Amino acid sequence: MAVNNDDATKQLFSRCLLNCLHIPLWRCYIRFIRKVNEKKGVEGHEETRKAFDFMLNYVGADIASGPVWMEYITFLKSLPAVNAQEESQRMTAVRKAYQRAIVTPTHHLEQLWKDYENFENSVSRALAKGLLSEYQPKYNSARAVYRERKKYVDEIDWNVLALPPTGSQKEELQWMAWKRVLAFEKGNPQRIDSASSNKRIAFTYEQCLMYLYHYPDIWYDYATWHAKSGSIDTAIKVFQRALKALPDSEVLRYAYAELEESRGAIQPAKKIYESLLGDGVNATALAHIQFIRFLRRTEGVEAARKYFIDARKSPNCTYHVYVAYAMMAFCLDKDPKIAHNIFEAGLKRFMHEPGYILEYADFLSRLNDDRNIRALFERALSSLPPEESVEVWKRFTQFEQTYGDLASMLKVEQRRKEAFSRTGEEGTSALEGSLQDVVARYSFMDLWPCSSNDLDHLARQEWLANNVNKKVEKSGLPNGTGLIDKGSTGPTTISNPSAKIVLPDTSRMVLYDPRQKPGGSGFLSSAPAAVVPAISSSLSTPTAKLVGGGSTNTLDEILKAAPPALVAFVASLPSVSGPSPDVDVVLSICLQSNIPTAQADKSTTLPTPGTSELSGSSKSHPIPNAKSTRDRQTGKRKGQEEDDTTTVQSLPLPRDVFRIRQLQLQKARGGTSSQQNGSVSYGSAISGELSGSTS
């Protein structure tokens, strides 16, 4: 267009215009037409008007076609009128354009209605009143439909490319949005005539295919909608377009052939089936089967038989072709002899296929030929490997339960167990009978010889029996071992309470040093971190080696090297089973213990029982003014100096202003009685309050 190459522009528009119902492209086309015909006078105006009508016929129903309608009306108003007749024709054309535009749900609907009101009032107010009152309800209906349509259209992304589906969430959302738009248009919400409604639905389908071009379900819905609407020829054209878009889609070819056959066009349908077969070498078994059925329906038994003889020579012919043609001969032709011969011919080729054996057994069951059924099972089980014969054994067992006596029934079940025991890990345990075998023998369809609770119990027992007997390996957990099911798809720890419970071996447990592995459960780990240096400093070198390096010294040797206060405290602890004592019991003993004051040097000074760090009370609830309390407890003289760096009480403690103020008030009111009693109550360690005793 920029270089005025009109011929190339026309060819380009002819290739893409009808396939791309996009408003900007069509407006570009109309600009080109107006440019070409602007100097041709009346003839050029007529060509431009035809181009506008052509454009509105295709994209006039688009929700974004408002500017196109306005441009068309402006063009009609600009046409010259030489006489009154031409002026009247021009006004009539403008009025018709307005009346078509105001009943089309577009983004510019309200603006078009206002322009139409002004136009009618400018021509004749008397005539305008009647026309406006006539089209007011239609405009209101179109405006309501526009609001509903806009909700669905806003969910569509108009900038995506037509790509094959990959299963992404964005693609699924687009597919769902288009489905909702199509369902909305099919409901005819504006209640317009059928022709206009069908035209709008077809336009929506065409727009949808611009984005969902590689979706076979959209093509199929579009074609079947045309067929249901009575437009069979249009539906055939849609199928032909669909096969050009998706040439490898077999399901669309079958749907197309079905449509042709339903309207009596046998030869076109046959050509479609032959296109599925191709040269016959790469044809699938399903294509052979469907073509045999088509020939049987349309040309008769002989045509189907001839093609079956040719199809069995194909390298891609599977046992499905034999089964399909044999059952066709049995059910449709009522000829069991031919069906039996076909099954026997296929048995020589497909003896290794369990599916074919089962289909042959079903056919013999319909003939009530129990002797040949047993012979078939025996031949098949003698050639099939055990891992592929599971379903055959199952069907053999069911057959004996239905047609055999008790002895043959039990014999087949025992043979089945022996066959599976040679391949399974259970060994001879699989040979043992169970109540489930009785349930299987005496059940029929949905009738069971026991309650549903019994069935659940038996199922759980079977699962446990299959998993407990399997290999057991230790799990990586430090608390013990677990049973690992190797037969499932992934390792699964059995947590069923009725399964075998493995307890930890306490004889292999060693003392745990929390300094190396924080969070241990040994007796030393029950003390807070702040007191560990004070305790460890009083231990001798051999004891430290035992705790840190894992020596084999006994607990008595540790206690001999420990301070007397610590030994007295440990002695007051109760004996517990397991590696971790009850925390509440330890705390209660800590509060009730009366540990003697240690007479040691400054480096081994231990806290008093009331503020013992082993109880955890001082760590959680610091005592204000701890230095003065310590001076009263030890009875030291005022002039004596003390190094607080090696004691726990020397650590900086947070100041509780409210508690200090409360203590000051208590001291002012009853300081004398408090000193006489020799104790200051700081609460309880268990209740969450502070506590401290002075002696």
Q: Explain this structure to me?
A:
By secondary structure, the protein is mainly α. Helices cover 60% and strands 1% of the residues. It contains 31 helices and 2 strands. The chain has helices at 6-16, 23-37, 42-59, 66-77, 84-101, 109-123, 125-153, 169-186, 194-211, 216-228, 232-245, 250-262, 266-277, 285-298, 301-311, 319-331, 336-349, 354-367, 370-383, 390-403, 406-421, 435-441, 452-468, 532-538, 541-549, 555-561, 564-572, 583-592, 617-620, 626-634, 657-677, and strands spanning 484-485, 492-493. It has a two-stranded antiparallel sheet with strand order 1-2. Strand 1 and strand 2 (492-493) form a beta hairpin. Helix 10 (216-228) packs antiparallel against helix 11 and helix 16 (319-331) runs parallel beside helix 18. The termini are far apart. Residues 471-499, 517-552, 598-654 and 672-695 have low confidence and may be disordered.
* DSSP strand tally: 2
Average predicted local confidence, pLDDT: 77
Global morphology:
flat
Give the percentage of residues in beta strands: under 5%
Distance between the termini: 108 Å
CA radius of gyration is 47 Å
What helical percentage do the residues reach? 55-70%
Instruction: Count every helix, treating DSSP H or I runs of 4 or more residues as helices.
Output: 31
Q: What is the topological layout?
A:
Layout: H1 6-16, H2 23-37, H3 42-59, H4 66-77, H5 84-101, H6 109-123, H7 125-153, H8 169-186, H9 194-211, H10 216-228, H11 232-245, H12 250-262, H13 266-277, H14 285-298, H15 301-311, H16 319-331, H17 336-349, H18 354-367, H19 370-383, H20 390-403, H21 406-421, H22 435-441, H23 452-468, E1 484-485, E2 492-493, H24 532-538, H25 541-549, H26 555-561, H27 564-572, H28 583-592, H29 617-620, H30 626-634, H31 657-677
